[in-house]
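4.2 Preliminary Data

To establish feasibility before requesting continued support, the project team ran the inverse folding procedure on a target of 424 residues. The structure was first converted into the token representation described in Section 3, and no sequence information of any kind was made available to the design step. The complete token record follows.
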């Protein structure tokens, strides 16, 4: 009987398919094992006692992680109210031993921390960041901040992190939250995780009975870096380009007086894709309506004393050496952004949530005898227009409560500065 040619061919094709399928399974198994080794390597890099990176010796990594563990085990310190736990200098930058002339201080909740990436795109100098965490964020916060340092060399080099949470909460050790970083391979991925959390909270609406301590955070960030001068900004704002060098050149010619702060006019931009770098670009955007004074829609009086018309029409293109254009006396309810020496009065930490938190500090500067000198070509920009309806539901209630606090705050200044004739 003759063999079936068709059957033999069928068995040959079937055998070939089985071989291909087996090779595919072996290949997938190899990839899975490789991915697992890569992840174990990343976990070791993040949390291992002898973590290795090609650009730094393992001893430095181990020392950095050990210092973080020590800071966490110390439990932080309570603030003056006893309602918050503060881990100051939880993670220090590689530049911690250097004393900068000018540093930037900012604050953020975990859901707003994604702005740090774009801020560092504009500000490549010392940056002190106070982060507020609540609830489930507290446990992961230390690991999150540590991971940013591991994956992002510019963060590791320049940023000092401080962590604030409720007094009844405590930050967890990074090893406990390593699963949150599965799949992370680079800095873009680390900030991508933060970007994914940007809509978890709206403004200060973090949770029921949770108050965002903005002035405490500002004080922690400002006091967390040993600089001669500090610019305090919100994390979704950025200064004009090259401010650090221009200020250093100015300070070499003229140091600010002991009773002087240097005001940077504040603006907001409709589309945050590209922030104006210098005054000529800002002026062009202003003329076509893409840029406007900060808080123009919500509280035009809060920035009006800056005298925008005068500043925008100063002679010259604004591209020369930085200098003082004019000096102003504070007027209620001005809340300027300024460069100030470390000796300026701190923010009053009783102000939380929305309303009067920055005005109160500017008011105290005025009563304490400070003058406000407006820089001629430096500025700050907020990403996006501030518009009615974008705030959380309790904004007006918080504003009313803080207005009452502001009244008693002003009375307290009379006792604090008995020889001052100035009032708010």
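Position-by-position output of the design step:
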């Amino acid at each position: 009987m003759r063999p079936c040619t068709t059957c033999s061919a069928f068995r040959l094709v079937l055998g070939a398919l089985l071989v291909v399928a087996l090779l595919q399974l072996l290949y997938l198994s190899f990839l899975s094992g490789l991915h697992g080794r890569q992840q174990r390597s990343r976990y070791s890099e993040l949390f291992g006692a002898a973590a290795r990176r090609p650009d730094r010796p393992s001893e430095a990594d181990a020392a950095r992680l050990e210092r973080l563990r020590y800071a966490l085990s110390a439990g932080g310190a309570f603030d003056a109210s006893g309602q918050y736990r503060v881990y100051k200098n939880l993670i220090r930058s590689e530049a911690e031993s250097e004393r900068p002339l000018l540093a930037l201080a900012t604050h953020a909740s975990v859901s707003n921390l994604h702005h740090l990436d774009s801020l560092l795109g504009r500000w490549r100098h010392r940056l002190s960041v106070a982060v507020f965490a609540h609830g489930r964020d507290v446990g992961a916060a230390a690991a999150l901040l540590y991971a940013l340092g591991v994956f992002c060399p510019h963060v590791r080099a320049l940023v000092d992190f401080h962590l604030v949470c409720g007094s009844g909460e405590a930050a967890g050790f990074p090893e406990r939250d390593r699963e949150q970083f599965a799949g992370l391979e680079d800095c873009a991925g680390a900030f991508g995780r933060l970007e994914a959390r940007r809509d978890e909270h709206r403004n200060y609406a973090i949770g029921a009975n949770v108050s965002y301590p903005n002035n405490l955070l500002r004080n922690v960030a400002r006091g967390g870096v040993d600089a001669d001068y500090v610019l305090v900004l919100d994390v979704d704002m950025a200064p004009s380009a090259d401010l650090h060098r221009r200020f250093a050149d100015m300070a070499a010619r003229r140091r600010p007086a002991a009773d002087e702060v240097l005001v940077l006019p504040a603006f907001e931009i409709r589309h945050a894709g590209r922030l104006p770098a210098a005054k000529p670009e800002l002026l062009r955007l202003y003329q076509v309506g893409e840029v406007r004074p900060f808080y123009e829609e919500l509280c035009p009086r809060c920035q009006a004393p800056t005298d925008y018309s005068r500043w925008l029409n100063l002679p010259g293109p604004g591209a020369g050496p930085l200098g003082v254009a004019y000096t102003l006396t504070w007027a209620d309810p001005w809340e300027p952004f300024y460069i100030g020496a470390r000796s300026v009065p701190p923010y009053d930490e009783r102000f939380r949530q929305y309303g009067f938190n920055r005005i109160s500090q500017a008011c105290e500067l005025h009563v304490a005898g400070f003058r406000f000198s407006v820089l001629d070509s430096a500025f700050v920009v907020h990403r996006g227009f501030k518009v009615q309806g974008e705030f959380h539901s309790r904004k007006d209630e918080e504003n009313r409560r803080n207005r009452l606090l502001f009244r008693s705050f002003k009375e307290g200044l009379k006792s604090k500065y008995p020889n001052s004739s100035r009032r708010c």
